[in-house]
């Protein structure tokens, strides 16, 4: 039973990564994320709720219209799924105060999402945003 729960949870996370983040399907976002979603590690200037996650995804898709991820691996423990992935995109819109550069970017993330009743209810994650800002030439890229 536990394995079936884990495999179903992995499928939900893959759909979010591929179809919402990678495809911009925000109708599916509304289906996949629980209304009481809680992000334990929100990005700067983002609220730790469903609206904050949606806003972050929209900012990423605006800044990087071809935003998509390569999932390297997923592992599960019951209703929690850990995913290691690399995001890719082309910088076509402003991102964290950096004007569009046209540069191709990539950065790694590791996150854990809890899926209950087919919906994402919680998130914990770490993204290598320093690497991303270095690639974009952000103000702090050269600081030591």
UniProtKB/TrEMBL annotation:
- According to the record, the segments passing through the membrane are none
| Pfam families linked | SnoaL
Question: Which GO biological process entries does UniProt record here?
Answer: polyketide metabolic process
SUPFAM superfamilies hit by this protein: NTF2-like
Q: Which domain of life is it from?
A: Bacteria
Task: State the organism of origin.
Answer: Undibacterium terreum
What the entry lists under InterPro entries is as follows: Cyclase_SnoaL-like, NTF2-like_dom_sf
State the protein's name: Ester cyclase
């Amino acid at each position: 039973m536990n394995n079936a729960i884990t495999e179903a949870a992995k499928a939900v996370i893959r759909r979010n990564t591929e179809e919402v983040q990678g495809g911009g399907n925000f109708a599916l976002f509304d289906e996949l994320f629980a209304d009481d979603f809680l992000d334990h590690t929100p990005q700067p200037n983002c609220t730790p709720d469903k609206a904050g996650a949606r806003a972050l995804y929209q900012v990423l898709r605006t800044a990087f219209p071809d935003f998509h991820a390569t999932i390297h691996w997923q592992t599960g423990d019951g209703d929690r799924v850990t995913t290691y992935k690399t995001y890719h995109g082309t910088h076509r819109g402003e991102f964290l105060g950096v004007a569009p550069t046209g540069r191709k970017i990539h950065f790694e993330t590791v996150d854990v999402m809890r899926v209950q009743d087919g919906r994402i209810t919680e998130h914990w994650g770490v993204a290598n945003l320093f690497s991303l800002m270095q690639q974009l030439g952000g103000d702090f890229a050269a600081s030591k």
